[in-house]
Design a protein that fits this description.
Blueprint: E1 4-5, E2 29-34, E3 39-44, E4 49-55, E5 63-65, E6 71-76, H1 88-92, E7 102-107, E8 112-117, E9 123-128, E10 134-139, E11 144-149, E12 154-160, E13 165-170, E14 176-181, E15 186-191, E16 196-202, E17 207-212, E18 218-223, E19 228-233, E20 238-244, E21 254-256, E22 262-266, E23 272-277, E24 282-288, E25 293-298, E26 304-309, E27 314-319, E28 324-330, E29 335-341
Antiparallel strand pairs: 1-8, 2-3, 2-29, 3-4, 5-6, 6-7, 7-8, 9-10, 10-11, 11-12, 13-14, 14-15, 15-16, 17-18, 18-19, 19-20, 21-22, 22-23, 23-24, 25-26, 26-27, 27-28
């Protein structure tokens, strides 16, 4: 396996997961991966302005921020981007360059890529272990998940998961990693201690993303075709409820509020984000944010929600109390993923 080093070696620290542990919001930075531009937009939460645009590589999608704010990780892919209307046969005729696959490591202070770690074939999303020593990467075109040792820059294990794996999320206690399988309509559960798949959980059609409650007892998995979210009991690996979203919803990104009272779901083509009361599992609100919102992230205090709106090339900033859009910030072409980290 290869590792590209652009400068001196660095140590790699932990991550901000779906529920950030940092309580400081002033000076936080929002990172948006722009799939068609090959860039990462860096946005100040104080001014709501883009403060940097960093070239990262081909087709950046999944993005995670390091706990200390010094590093951001971005999934890159040398596989072609094929629109939904294109057949697999037509898509396979496009140019593929696997040398461009990997996980870019961005130094936030220097605002440049300092390394590219291997990420397996066509990495789409990923998450880090709690200690930051391993990456768990979904390899969309291979039907596997790769486990990457960050220090050595090597893939230490490859695990079969559901076909077309996409969403990846580490549980708050670090025990499990969920990987959604779009075509098999399931979630593969990796136990981090054994690095084995210990369960496969059937969910709705075309699961895209996953997140956990802060105590790690429940998980939430969005299913695009069904327009629903599966509620999973983590201990038993069972779906215990299904949340149906408004008609026309295509549920994509999911995020839980820090107080575990709300679930936010981006709805793709319907241009909206739905708000779910996690006590009653009922829809309590909806806000139109932009064209085909996908990646979403919450500020550490839960007061602001950020959505990446692919076709409109912008990031929406939502006040979660009023469900008003405070700003729409132009970023690169086809924004895909969003992550929030403290300013270093």
């Amino acid at each position: 396996m290869r590792i590209k080093l652009y400068w001196r070696p660095y140590c790699f620290l932990g991550l901000i997961g779906s529920l950030a542990s940092c309580q400081k919001t002033e000076g936080d930075l929002v990172y948006v991966s722009n799939e068609d531009s090959g860039t990462l937009s860096v946005i100040s939460t104080d001014t709501l302005e883009v403060v940097a645009t960093i070239e990262v590589g081909k087709r950046p999608r999944g993005v995670r921020a390091g706990r200390d704010g010094g590093r951001v990780y971005v999934a890159l892919s040398g596989s072609p981007k094929c629109p939904p209307w294109m057949s697999d046969e037509e898509c396979e005729g496009e140019v593929v360059d696997k040398s461009l696959d990997g996980i870019a490591v961005v130094d936030v202070v220097e605002r440049r890529v300092v390394a590219v770690l291997p990420g397996g074939s066509d990495p789409e999303q990923f998450d880090l272990s709690l200690d930051g020593k391993h990456l768990y990467v979904s390899n969309e075109d291979a039907g596997v998940a790769s486990i990457v040792d960050v220090d050595s820059g090597e893939i230490v294990k490859t695990l079969p998961v559901g076909q077309e794996p996409e969403g990846v999320r580490t549980s708050p206690d670090g025990r499990f990693v969920y990987v959604t399988g779009e075509t098999d309509h399931d979630v593969s559960v990796i136990e981090t201690a054994t690095t084995e798949v210990v369960a496969k959980i059937p969910v709705g059609d075309r699961p895209r993303d996953a997140c956990f409650s802060s105590d790690g007892k429940r998980a939430f998995v969005s299913s695009e075709i069904d327009g629903s979210v599966s509620v999973i009991d983590v201990a038993s690996h069972q779906v215990v409820a299904t949340i149906s979203l408004p008609r026309g919803s295509r549920s994509m990104g999911v995020a839980v509020s820090p107080d575990d009272r709300r679930l936010y779901v981006s709805n793709g083509r319907s241009k909206t984000v739905s708000v779910v009361d996690l006590e009653t599992l009922e829809i309590t609100g909806e806000v139109e944010v932009g064209e085909r919102p996908w990646g979403i992230a919450l500020s550490s205090d839960g007061r602001r929600l950020y959505t990446a709106n692919g076709p409109s090339n912008d990031l929406s900033v939502v006040d979660t109390e009023t469900l008003r859009v405070l700003a729409r910030i132009p970023v690169g072409d086809a924004p895909w993923g969003v992550a929030i980290g403290p300013s270093p």
